[in-house]
Design goal:
415 residues; eight-stranded antiparallel β-sheet; binds manganese (II) ion; Polypeptide N-acetylgalactosaminyltransferase; Ricin_B_lectin; manganese; transferase; signal-anchor
């Protein structure tokens, strides 16, 4: 069954659509389209006259729909067997859920249907670029049943099921956004922060034709549209975190984005939570870019961790005080790195007992990634903890036992 509703809107939308060549494991973002089961508006809208026709057409479709649950789809998709019931069921149980199917890949070249991976969710980086990502390992381990819904920080685009009164209550769409792009962020932030939730339901599968090209390969006009739309999402919803969006996308600064007064009013009226809440509860995996470095000493017993060259890490008498602290005892904990000037704490191998040394910092290097675990410092990939072995012998990583003195590192900020 082809979902061919409002497809003349989308015929033009497609020329501006996101599009990497997808592999079945990592399908690219699905841009938006029309709403299903909705009569076509009587008059045709010319894109040159109505720049926001796509988003507006979705709102018009939603207003016209007589059902209590709305299903939004792109025109260039094909639904799979029994795709709709599982999503409707989830919304019936809780009307604040916004439910998306797994989006399979329909080949652009031959319309072949390729199953997408069933353990991906929607994520993004600070430039508000959508990406599919693996479910965090803890959530993956907690899944006892592959049919369980997958909580997702954002939805890919315009394919979802939502209660109509909830859609209206939450303010439909930001109709001052142009054409398409970025509205999935605005909707996703709004749903989470204003009391709802977003999920991908593995029992439901919808195929989608992804385009080959990336939106930023397109002429400037499309990039500007994307900037305007994401800027509106950032300005209305991201609070102080919008600074990271502007750092990641400096070209957005100073670009016009229209008035957001009505959306800010909506946010106040709905009493939505701050973006900090979203960061802490919905998407803690999104790392805040390098925080301002704070120098600390790492204390164990009465001694301080000291680095004298790359291969000489040891505990030594704490020397100096405040800003006069010995340079070799000053550390900056900027997750995931533990750094001293340009060198970072790194393991030499991933097995217990491996020595720890200093090497030039590289936040992408798995051997350099650490996180606090109680008083201990845990190497993120091996799961082992920084250990002095209680003998002030060479520093190694060993099985985490944070209560052991040799694994207790108390960072003390240097005033
Ligand atoms: Mn699409």
């Amino acid at each position: 069954m082809l979902c061919r509703v409002l497809d003349w809107f989308n015929a033009s939308a497609d020329s501006a659509e996101t599009a990497r060549r997808p592999s079945p494991q990592t399908p690219p973002p699905a841009p938006p389209g029309g709403a299903q089961g909705i009569p076509r508006p009587a008059e045709r809208h010319s894109p040159s006259l109505n720049f926001n026709w796509l988003i507006r057409s979705r709102v018009r479709g939603a207003n016209t729909a007589s059902a209590t649950i709305l299903t939004f789809l792109d025109s260039h998709c094909e639904v799979n067997t029994d795709w709709l019931q599982p999503m409707i069921q989830r919304v019936k149980e809780d009307h604040t859920r916004v439910v998306s199917p797994i989006i399979d890949v329909i080949s652009l070249d031959n319309f072949a249907y390729l199953a997408a991976s069933a353990d991906l969710r929607g994520g993004f980086d600070w430039s508000l670029h959508f990406k599919w990502e693996q479910i965090p390992i803890e959530q993956k381990m907690a899944r006892s049943d592959p049919t369980q819904p997958i909580r997702t920080p954002v939805i890919a685009g315009g394919i979802f099921v939502m209660d109509k009164s909830w859609f209206n209550h939450l303010g439909q769409y930001d109709t001052h956004m142009d054409i398409w792009g970025g509205e999935n962020f605005e909707l996703s932030f709004r749903v989470w922060m204003c009391g709802g939730s977003l999920e991908i339901l593995p029992c439901s599968r919808v195929g989608h034709v992804f385009r080959k090209r990336h939106p930023y390969d397109f002429p400037e006009g499309n990039a500007l549209t994307y900037i305007k739309n994401t800027r509106r999402a950032a300005e209305v919803w991201m609070d102080e975190y919008k600074q990271y969006y502007y750092s990641a996308r400096p070209s957005a600064q100073g670009k016009a984005f229209g008035s957001i007064a009505d959306r800010l009013t909506l946010r106040r009226k709905l009493n939505c939570k701050p973006f900090r809440w979203y960061m802490e509860n919905v998407y803690p995996e999104l790392r805040v870019p390098e925080q301002e470095a704070v120098s600390s000493v790492l204390k164990q017993g009465g001694l301080c961790l000291e680095a004298l060259g790359r291969d000489s890490l040891s505990l030594a008498e704490c020397r100096g005080a405040g800003t006069n602290r010995l340079q070799s005892q000053k550390w900056e904990l900027v997750e995931p790195l533990i750094r001293q000037q340009d060198l970072c704490l790194a393991i030499s191998a991933f097995t217990a007992g491996s020595k720890v040394k200093m090497e030039p910092c590289n936040s992408k290097e798995p051997r350099q990634k650490w996180k606090p675990r109680g008083p201990a410092l845990q190497h993120m990939v091996s799961g082992l903890c920084l250990d002095n072995q209680g003998t002030n012998g060479p520093l190694v990583i060993s099985q985490c036992r944070p209560q052991m003195a040799g694994q207790s590192w108390e960072p003390q900020v240097i005033a």
